[in-house]
Amino acid sequence: MKVLYVYAHPEPKSFNGALKDTALAVLQEKGHEVKLSDLYAMKFHPVLKASDFPERKNLEIFNPFFEAIKAVKTGAFSPDIKEEMEKVKWADLLIFQFPIYFTFMPAIMKGWIDRVLAPGFGFNPVTNSAYDTGLFKGKSAMIVTTTGAPKSMYSEEGAHGDLNRHLESITHCIFEYMGMKVLPSYIIYEVSSMSREKGTEELEKYRQRILDPRFGR
Q1: How many domains does one find in the chain?
Q2: pLDDT tens digits along 100-148
Q3: Is residue 216 a part of any domain in this protein?
Q4: Domain, as residue range, for 175
């Protein structure tokens, strides 16, 4: 299996960093091909801008939707976007790992999605290519995420509500919208107050999740 691991955390020595390193090691141990997009390390620019389209059709008014639709046909994206698009094309499974910020993904991860998973690439409303006819049909995607809050806060009765419901704006409105099969999200709670022993235990649990023969299916 070909796996693209899209990772967003600013500190390499964090628990998230260890989680990512564990995943990469185990995936390779299982014989999978793996490519990493470490967004902070890459200094990935998260802001969609006119210069993303070097062959713009309309120089007077910037319409990113229509520029993207046209650019997909010609490949006329900025080099950083083209490089990430090639990784996505190559991958069978996309894993997105990030910490929860205000019940959502960090801005740098959202920027990667906005710029890379462009109209005409993973979906195309003009041709009604979405959901069952999404352009990434045959690929799978999953979220790996951490929170500082306890699980009780993200329960149905908790202050924030069920975290999986918050994640549906990603799993349903992005992944499924583009035709991808959504795998169950992997969530680790209370990372901010986690002891070293608990952290080691959680890393082993994640390792075992990836080693499960059903992983990625």
Answers
A1: 1
A2: 999 899 999 999 999 999 999 999 988 989 999 999 999 999 999 999 9
A3: no
A4: 2-211
